[in-house]
Amino acid sequence: MKRHDDRSLDQMRPLEFILDVAPHASASVIACFGDTRVICAVTIEEDVPRWMKNQRVSGGWLTAEYAMLPYSTLDRKRRDSTSGRVDGRSVEIQRLIGRSLRAAVDLEALGPRTIWIDCDVLQADGGTRTASITGATVALAIALNRLVSKGLLVKSPLKKLISAVSVGKCEGTVLLDLCYVEDRDAEVDMNVVMTDAGEFVELQGSGEEAVFTPDEMAQMIALASKGVQDIAVVQREAIARADETVPSDLSNLRDFFARK
User: Measured in Å, how far apart are the chain's first and last C-alpha atoms?
Assistant: First the structure.
């Protein structure tokens, strides 16, 4: 099968993290999976939700919000605030992001703090939820490292890196990291969330008017595992590079858009 963008079957789209694009956030990145671009920002508050206080739950909390900006798709997407209803897909995805990132953090070691993860899709070309999880992990790691450098934490409570990737079956062929055209036409679509140690956080898979065999599922999981390991390399590089950036410096963002 010839892919839409001429990649090999097991090849990721070009992956890049543009650091510190939101000066008022604790840390932020633009996660670029090919033409999919998501702003992932982390804000850390020195407080916990009221329900934790009422139930006397110790430690901290992490939660996420997700939205597709109106101009992220070919046809303008109405904002929830003007449509008068909450987009069910967005709610599902932000819950997935929150679950995935909570699996990576020792909330007890975080202390009485709330971590807000905001993921806003700038441009959608398939895999926005996987890009959100992957980019949010990078921003989270950087934000927690900064708390350590300020002496507010003894060590980072981030236990492991989390990333996610899509896999699917198109024209009977199993593919890694589907772009929009492949995702639209896929007979089977699966999103896999994993740690950099190869552990599973969540699997979301379904047939689109089709079925898949145990062998095909094994192929998809094997491809996803390869993709996650490739992603983890780029994640670690971006986190290490954050030491060289200044949160209020937007030169990275200017350079990024200048070359597009």
Answer: 29
Domain CATH for 63: 3.30.230.70
Q: Is residue 55 part of a domain?
A: yes
Hey, what's the torsion of the CAs at 247, 245, 254, 232, to 10 degrees? -100
The total of structural domains in the chain comes to 1
Full residue range of the structural domain in which residue 69 is found:
15-247
User: What global pTM score does this model have?
Assistant: 0.91
pLDDT tens digits along 159-192: 999 999 999 999 899 999 999 999 998 999 999 9
